[in-house]
Amino acid sequence: MIKKIIHSCLKYFSKKIIPLDADIEEVKSLIESLHPVKTKHELIRIGSKGDGGYLIPNDLEGVNTCFSPGVSDNCSFELDLANNFGVTSYMCDWSVNDSPILHDNLIFKKKHLGIINNSKYLRLESWYDSLKPSNDSILQMDIEGSEYNVILDTNNQTLSKFRIIIIEFHDLDMLFNQIGFRTISSVLEKLLINFRVVHIHPNNCCSSYEYNGIEIPRVMEITFLNKNRIDSFESVTEFPHKLDIDNTDNNSIILPRNWYSKINSKT
After folding, report:
1. What's the structural domain count of the chain?
2. 134 contact partners, CB below 8 Å, separation of at least 6
3. pLDDT digit string (tens) for 64-86?
4. 54 touches 166 (CB < 8 A)
5. Which domain holds residue 146?
6. What is the bridge-based pairing of β-strands 121-123 and 112-114?
7. Is 126 left (phi over 0), alpha (psi -120 to 50) or beta?
8. How far apart are CA 64 and CA 61, in angstroms?
């Protein structure tokens, strides 16, 4: 517990010396591009009631594989997919020795997802190509900040083969910093080439940060749906979703209003 407190304090004070010098209009524009939309696929909750559970579109017919880096000690999402949808999850994590639960449809590899292939790291593109899924797949990624390098390292052709992507994004308050904004926006804009955001859930493990009238939760789970699965959409005007559940016992964080708004329906 003491180590966690010290780590949190160091992280907090280190960020105080980082310049808040990003272009605020660019930050606003990026956030607007991430406004969630509602499609014909209703959201369902997969996984535990709390951390490890996510809201995804009920569009799983034909999906038979899930890539899940960063499993740690919680594979409730993958187990739910296996038991209720027949999806095989390929999991990886260097920090643990095996899957938290043994199951024929849960296949574990002791490696971190990264930007090189060696005894400790595995690239997403290489991992996907080695398994050659015959149908659409899901990508569920919680890798503690390495998501930015991994997405930038993965080509668009590989990313476009996923039907649903769920990523827990960390340190999002770095959008207020010029260098942080360049990195984070590059990742999000790359994903938006082939996907639309259908849900955002602030993880209440951490607080929000507000600057110049813009509030950004530091950690958020964002669900993307491939554009080829979307015929039409409409605005999402209310948060939280009825199926959202806090990740921790900390105070709840409601998605700030600037992260969703009314838009015109389109095809």
Report:
1. 1
2. 64
3. 999 999 999 899 999 999 999 99
4. yes
5. 2-259
6. parallel
7. alpha
8. 8
